[in-house]
Design a protein that fits this description.
Spore Coat Polysaccharide Biosynthesis Protein SpsA, Chain A; 7 strands; seven-stranded mixed beta sheet; alpha/beta; about 40% helix; 9 helices
């Protein structure tokens, strides 16, 4: 599956990165065949892979896209444009606005959806916004901003942490409609009941952060010349 994702990204950047979790299949060879740089993670989780991607990215904008084929590469310009235009530092894809085939098919998926909605409500109330999907990993961020946030989450709580630290730091955060399809490869390793307390603790910590100045939401208007793409 990763080969199809990387093929769709070819030509969009000259810095295509795959953060690999010490896989035993052909991931590394496939990534190399598509001209991607392969960087090994530390086995700590997705959050650590995100930090590694930011650390090694070579361009001013880093875009994150999952390797399971659930994200549509056609949506990438929507996420990158506002950052390239200087109108936002973080642009998140929204499955609530663009639709999802992954969140409504089973009880566990509906529970994940409800948890995501609660997270969005809490963050919106704290920072005075009306955004819809803080947990979507499909997003673009100004690289140096991502590095300066001091991200610490090792799990998929990295997404809400990134958004809340941007907002608390006065950075501009917005979202764009993106469609999420059924994953074409791999299976989710998230057990909602086992990690729910971690999400709650991470959320509370972020909500208590001191807000420095009021962030605004931006809209993109043009295609950037280049961006760094991190595949995690």
């Amino acid at each position: 599956m990763i080969g199809e994702v990387l093929q769709a990204l070819e030509g969009l950047t000259d810095d295509l990165i795959v953060v690999d979790g010490h896989s035993t299949d052909r991931t590394v060879a496939i990534a190399a065949s598509h001209g991607a740089r392969v960087v090994m993670d530390r086995g700590l989780g997705k959050g650590d892979a995100v930090r590694i991607g930011l650390d090694v990215a070579r361009h001013e904008i880093t875009l994150f896209i999952d390797a399971d084929g659930s994200h549509d590469p056609a949506d990438i310009p929507k996420l990158v444009w506002p950052v390239a235009d200087g109108e936002a530092e973080l642009v998140m894809g929204s499955r609530m606005l663009g639709g999802s085939e992954e969140l409504f098919g089973s009880v566990s998926e509906v529970i994940r959806l409800m948890g995501s909605l609660v997270i969005s409500l809490a963050i919106n109330y704290r920072f005075g916004l009306r955004l819809t999907d803080y947990q979507n990993g499909f997003r673009a961020i100004k690289t140096q901003v991502g590095r300066d946030l001091g991200l610490t989450s090792d799990l998929t709580t990295i997404e809400q942490e990134m958004a809340m630290k941007c907002l608390a730091g006065g950075y501009r955060v917005t979202e764009r409609p993106t469609h999420e399809g059924r994953r074409k490869g791999g299976t989710s390793k998230i057990n909602v009941m086992k990690v729910a307390h971690i999400y709650v603790w991470n959320l509370l910590r972020g909500l208590m952060a001191v807000r420095r100045r009021t962030p605004t939401q931006g809209r993109g208007t043009k295609v950037p010349d280049e961006s760094a793409t991190t595949d995690v």
